[in-house]
Amino acid sequence: MKLGGGKGGGRPWKIGGVGRRSSFGSGNGGSGMNAGGGSDGISGKGGNRSSGGSGDAGAGSNPLVALWAAYNSLLESQPILTKGLTSLVGFAVGDALAQKYLGDGDFKVDRLLRMAAFGALFHGPTGHYFYGFLDRLIVGTEPLKVVSKVAIDQILWAPIFGICFFGILGAMEGKSFKEIKAKIENDLVTAVTTSWKVWPLAHAINFRFIPTEQRLLYINAIQIGYNVFLSIIGNATVPEKSAA
Fold this sequence. Notes:
The chain has helices at 53-61, 63-77, 79-102, 109-137, 143-172, 177-209, 215-234, 240-243, and strands at 12-15, 18-21. The protein is mainly α.
C-alpha cells in the first residue's frame, strides 16, 4: 500500500482489482490524517469528517474515558481548584479508611472534615505551586535531575509540610500554640522519616514519567494509603509530659 500526497489525493491501492484512494492521502479538500480530506467521494464535497470523530464517539460511550477527559479539561481551565478537590478526596478517603479499619469504632465526622479541608485548602494549592516551581527549576527527566528533585522534595519540603500539617490541624481543632508546638516536637521526626520510606521511589517514578499537570493526581493516588498514616499520627494524642 502506497500513501501519496498528490493534487488528487493519495495514490490508489487495489483490493481485488478495484482501485480506491487511501483515506490517509491529502486531497484538495483537506490534508493529513483526515478520513474525508479529498473531493473524491469518501465524504463528498460538502463533508470533511475528521478521523478523530470515532474517538470522540468512543469517549462518549465510555464513562471512564469521558470522566478522564472532563477531569483534564477542568485541570486546564481551573488547575488550583481541580487539584484542591483532588486532594480533598485523597485526604478524606485516607481518613475514612483509617477510622474504619484502624480506629476505635467511633467514626468522627469532624475529624474527616478537617482532613478533607487540609487537603483542599493546603495540600492541593501548595502542591500545584511547589511541583510547578520544581519543574521550572530543574527541567528534564534525566536520572540526576530526578534524584535532585526527589532530594529537594524529601529533605526540604517534607519537614515544612509536616510542620504545616500538624499546625493547621491543631489550629482547626482549636489547640493552643503550646499544644501545637508540643505536637510538632513529638511527631515531626516520625512523620518525616516515614515519608522517607514511602516517597523517594514514588517520586522517582513521578518526576521521571508523570507530566507536571498530572503530578498531584498521581501523588493523591499513592497518598490515599499514606494518608491513613497521616490521619492516625495527625490525630494521635500527645503524651502529657510532651504537652506540658
